Amino acid sequence: MRLFIGIRTRNEIPRDQKGPLRDAVRSAYRALDRVQPWPQENTTTDLRWVPGEGRVAVIYRSNEEPSIPERAGWIGNKERVWAWSGVMGSDLEASLRKQRATDVDDEEVWSGIGSFAALGATPDTLIAYTNQHRSEGLFWISTPTAVIVSNSAAVLSLIRTGKDPEYSRIGTAAFLMHALPFADATPFEGVRTLEAAAKLTADDRTDARIELDQVEQIEDDHDIDATAETIAAGLVDYARVLSAGSHEVIAAITGGKDSRLVVSALHAAGVDFSTYTNGLKESGEAAVGRRVTDALGIPHRLITPPVRRSASGRSIIAATPELQAWNTLRSTGGMGNAFTMLGAPDRKHVAVTQKTNFGGQGGEIIRGGFSRYLPVVAPAATDARNLLERQWFNNRDLLTPFAREAVLAEALPLLDLSDRDPVQCTFQAYVTNRTGRWLATMRHGESVISSHTTLLINNQMVRLLRTLPSSALVGERIAHAVMAKLAPEAVDLPFFRDRWQFEKDAPDPAYKPDTWDERAPYSAHDQPRADFNWRTAFTPALGAFFAEQVLADRTGPLADVLDRSAVTDMLAGKRYRAPAAWALFSSAFMADGRWLSDAPSSPRSIEIAVPD
């Protein structure tokens, strides 16, 4: 993980007064020391850039071992500095190395290869860039003396208050509404999220102004095959970049489309790699994964969860929710959901030269984002709004009416786009808010112990997709065409409980209608253990534990946004939703400050029965 903070004193502060800048730097270091998830002894890079003259300071800290220049995260001299998270292409890295922050071409950054967020500074100017999908998030605050930007919202919250975080009711409600952040509000009061494909500038002209990349859509007929060819070639090139120099390359494979697309790209790129699937041996995900890897001739292994026998002889998994929450919240800066398990952040970072682990995160972007669920013919504004409300507001029954309305108002600007273009509304919602808010949160946490190697969130590819006419984004046809070019032997193998969207309900006359039955989804309903996932199963003991933790808070941010009766019923098993239950517990764990402790205190163990 790389953490960075950029500070610029406001224009009303006289240039000869250095006290406000020094105070802000000291405050930033205190916040960084408190929020940094890894032990101090694991810090590999700790830099501060404060010119003798000027209004700007930049602080950078990393626990990653130096590797290729594209992942270096820091370029600096007396004239200028750049800091970034994630990975950028070699062309952009070389360009930034040669340029001051005030000289860079905005489009060069917004169309650059990779997945990154960048912060540039000269003695008098601070500039921050997000890319098309902001899967590397940036946040900012404005204090009475300075504008401050960071890739950690928690750091900014501590700088803003000078002591403990101050939590936002709306931000907490927006988190709980979908069990992960999807709106631009953060759980921290006064901390703002920088938009996707945005540039924030703080200079002598203004304390802070924001400009957005204006991408123009193609209006004429679109050649899907040509676009698929471009995307496939780009994925092959990017796969080689991300895996270059690594002693071991591995990739997750499940029964879905996204991991299969990653495996297909690695295979087409000629990368030497192996695959794995997490789950029990009866899992449908494992069965489909093995079929794909057999077809491509790629090694595969199954990683099973630790199952043991209880005193009564039952098969059980021992859950430790408090340890899980501490790991997740420490890693994500207080913004994650412990439903998604993250590794212990005190582990030493795995060098990208040692192991590169590919996942399918973000693959839905190639499939059109949420637009893949729209009718292929003449989707309407109501289709888009109903879809987003169903996707995003699925836990609305757990919130008070006021909290629901506040979150709806937060999401309204994006929902209103449905009146002009339902497809673009649902595509952009996925790219900028699903990928760029909740996926970004978890990617940030994952980066504590290993570098990002997400193939399918390439900024350059996403910008290309943004130029396409809306008609090209529905039905998953582009993703299908890309996979057909990368791995024709795998494109027609059945998925686990899914089909390509364009042939979901019936054969498509334009694509092999005679073999539609052969592509019928693989199912495992007749195997009790095949579907088992202890995190999603309702367990009375775990539900009671969550209720005890969540409903104890009558004064914090949860107290004002929860419908206590609805939460009580849900945690007791009525319409139980595991992501929502874990999100409630995560929020309670965050609100009482336990996530900022040095370690979880005496975490309880709860036994979860596994079906025989």
Structural account:
InterPro entries: Rossmann-like_a/b/a_fold. This is Asparagine synthetase domain-containing protein. This protein has about 600 residues and is α+β, with helices and mostly antiparallel strands. Helices cover about 35% and strands about 15% of the residues. It has helices at about 20-35, 90-100, 105-110, 155-160, 170-180, 225-245, 255-270, 285-295, 320-330, 380-390, 400-415, 420-445, 460-465, 475-485, 540-550, 555-560, 565-570, 580-590; strands at about 1-10, 45-50, 55-60, 75, 80-90, 115-120, 125-130, 140, 145-150, 190-195, 200, 210, 250, 275-280, 300-305, 310, 315-320, 355-360, 605-610. The strands form 4 sheets. It has a 6-stranded antiparallel sheet with strand order 2-3-1-9-8-10, with helices on one face. α1 crosses α4 (about 155-160), α5 (about 170-180) runs antiparallel to α18 and α10 runs parallel beside α12 (about 420-445). The chain is globular, with a radius of gyration of 24 Å.
